[in-house]
Amino acid sequence: MPRPRCERCQRPLDHCLCPLIPSLASRTRIVLLQHPSETAHALNTARLAALGLNNAELRVGEVFDGLDELLATPGYRAALLFPGDQAQVLTAYTEVDDQPLLLIVPDGTWRKARKLLYLNPMLAALPRVTLGAVAPSRYRLRKAPEAGALSTLEAVVEALNVLEQPVSFDALLKPFDALIEGQIKAMGAETFQRNHGPS
What we know:
The chain is α/β, with parallel strands linked by helices. 31% of the residues lie in helices and 14% in strands.
């Protein structure tokens, strides 16, 4: 019989993260577009980001209807958080930035994220933004495919910390850290060291 789950954070009730999830306001609107294969992932960090930010939403799919309306949300300028040759490094809002970003964040492996862009040409056509220098990922359960690779939640936190400085969005990382600690505890310190410790 499956373990009862929290309706909100989707974690087993005995590991519910809701008490750690903040409720943060942001000028930036975050829209997380999640590939369906990510929904069952134990560390569904896009969901944590959507739950912790008042001005965020999570959509799941491969082809997204209503993108034209979404991208034309009044009061925002849309941009895609995704690396590329033309991507601009994010910088803090200035006094003259009267229009904050509607930041579209694809959630999935790099291959799945590229597929989302391919299947949704309106996304691929958006101006791209990327993060500058970032701290190493706290995601100690997964070998990063390259230096600077972050989980979706970490990327959102980094982006907001840059855009809306001096405001800090680090509180979003509390449930993420607890989730990782819980996973490490469940696998046992020895297994963790063998599989994920320094090589």
